[in-house]
Known about the structure:
Elements: H1 3-35, H2 43-54, E1 62-63, E2 66-67, H3 77-80, H4 83-91, H5 99-102, H6 113-127, H7 153-161, H8 177-187, H9 212-221, H10 232-241, E3 254-255, E4 258-259, H11 265-268, H12 271-282
Antiparallel strand pairs: 1-2, 3-4
Amino acid sequence: MNKRQTRLFAIGSTAVATLVFLGLTVDSHRQFPTLTNADKLTPEVVAGKDVWHKFNCINCHTLFGEGAYYAPDLTKITQLRGEQYLTAYMKNPAQFYDEQRHRRLMPKQDLSDQEIKNLIAFLAWVSNVDNQGWPPRPILVTGATIPGTDTTASQKVESASAMAPPAARPVTGGENPMALGERVFRSTSPACNACHSVAPGVNMAGPSLAGVGSRALQAIATPGYKGKAKDAQAYIREAILEPSAHIVPGAMYSADGVSFMPNTYGQSLKPEQIEQLTAYLMSLK
């Protein structure tokens, strides 16, 4: 290839690459309105974005994998937690964890009710953006994840320290039932999060409980359901007290019709703790 041919080849290659790039750019912009749900950008969503920036949430959290890595990615948080849970958490995060035990340092921001509502609307809009599977996996932060989503050595130690009875931490008046239920989830003996994750697709000794609040009704509606529950709340309560009441066909978490899950929670937990745990699990969308 002589100099003239080399020059023509370089010019041609550059032209083709430029055309491909422009084509992809135009196609991307053509799809943006659909992928980003631009028609759902309500004033409430925009106000929620302003709340996100006002309180510097990105200094700890990430959206679409972008931001700080101190706290969990919140891209799909509204698909994992109900509005009641998120509202209670934002009002007083300290209800849901013990800073010394769980090492979370989520500050109490004193958001107004309207700011919380707007922020949830913004996060709901974000969660419905088609992010094409990005990031490819949940970003898990040691010591700062949703309980049960991180299996690092430090959290295993943390989980082991959480095996103390639930009564080990005093309950103060007015605490949210879901917050108390999350505490039971982490601290009862044996601890629920020792076997169950609340992250989608993360199965441990027991199946992931992500979405259990939504899947409960589906389980009741299946032809093979053998329990007595008539609604989602009753199903979750039944699963805690009588884990063998309904065995999911083909699951590897039972043998000969008997669940591997302990059936002693009815004796080790108080009735109010069962209700609190049920309330927390109902919040897992």
